[in-house]
């Protein structure tokens, strides 16, 4: 793990901690701490990491959805809204969120300011950046992380209301 990678992960984790703190000021939302789970099953991982916003059925009605600045989208209609296409890569990018990770202390302090003051708040990501979170909670397991990510994506794909090529049956 490179220094850069480690620092990005630390910054993003700090960001998640601050974001959850900001939510709890708005409404009595419990602080969310993401823990490693033993199972690599996509449905189990979805339950642990995604359900509290996107809901058990993925339609966006999780217990924390109501307090978010941006409502969680319906994950069952990703393909339907994209001309029948389900891009694994786009979904992986969204879950990982690497492009949004602050790369330096200025980005970090801009984001913290936005969160604390509400100014430019739209620049603060609402969905947690799971790339750094998974890197932190599954630190020694690159291959294992890839399997987990693939299984989460496959699970989200299985929720699609429209048939998607290569779809796996609902579990
Ligand atoms: C804190 C709440 C929260 C959690 C936890 C969360 N999401 Fe999201 N998610 C959102 C919000 C809000 C959006 C829409 C805004 C955005 O794009 O950031 C979103 C957007 C998405 C999208 C894009 C959907 C589309 O219509 O293009 C995907 C895919 C997604 N989430 C998957 C996941 C998966 C998989 C997990 C678990 C690993 C997860 N999310 C966890 C809040 C959350």
What does this structure look like?
The protein has 171 residues and is an all-alpha fold. It contains seven helices and no strands. The chain has one domain. 49% of the residues lie in helices and 0% in strands. Residues 23-29 have low confidence and may be disordered. Heme C binds next to helix 3, helix 4 and helix 7. Heme C (HEC) binds next to helix 3, helix 4 and helix 7.
Please describe the topology of this protein.
Layout (H helix, E strand, L loop, with lengths): L2 H24 L15 H8 L1 H4 L33 H9 L8 H13 L12 H8 L4 H17 L13
Helix pairs in contact: 1-5, 1-6, 2-7
List keywords for this structure.
171 residues, 7 helices, mainly alpha, binds heme C, single chain
Summary of the model, kept short:
It is built from 7 helices and no strands. The chain is mainly α and 171 residues long.
Q: β content, as a range?
A: under 5%
Number of helices: 7
> What ligands can be seen in this structure?
heme C
Radius of gyration: 16 Å
Tally of discrete structural domains: 1
Report the uncertain regions: 23-29
Give a short account of the largest sheet.
none
Helix/strand class: mainly alpha
Number of separate strands:
0
- What would the principal axes of the Cα set say about the shape? globular
Q: Approximately how much helix is present in the residues?
A: 40-55%
State the end-to-end CA separation: 35 Å
Order of helices and strands: HHHHHHH
Arithmetic mean of pLDDT: 84
């Amino acid at each position: 793990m490179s220094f850069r990678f480690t620092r990005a992960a630390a910054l993003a984790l700090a960001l998640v901690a601050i974001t959850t703190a900001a939510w709890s000021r708005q409404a009595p939302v419990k602080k969310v701490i993401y823990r490693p789970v033993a199972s690599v099953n996509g449905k189990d991982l979805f339950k642990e990491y995604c359900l509290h916003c996107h809901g058990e059925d993925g339609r966006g009605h999780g217990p924390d959805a109501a307090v978010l600045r941006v409502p969680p989208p319906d994950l069952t209609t990703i393909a339907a809204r994209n001309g029948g296409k389900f891009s694994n890569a786009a979904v992986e990018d969204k879950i990982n969120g690497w492009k949004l990770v602050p790369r330096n202390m200025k980005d970090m302090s801009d984001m913290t300011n936005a969160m604390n003051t509400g100014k430019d708040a739209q620049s603060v990501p609402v969905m947690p950046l799971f790339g750094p979170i998974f890197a932190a909670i599954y630190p020694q397991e690159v291959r294992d992380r890839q399997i987990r990510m693939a299984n989460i994506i496959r699970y989200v794909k299985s929720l699609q209301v429209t048939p998607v090529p290569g779809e796996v049956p609902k579990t």
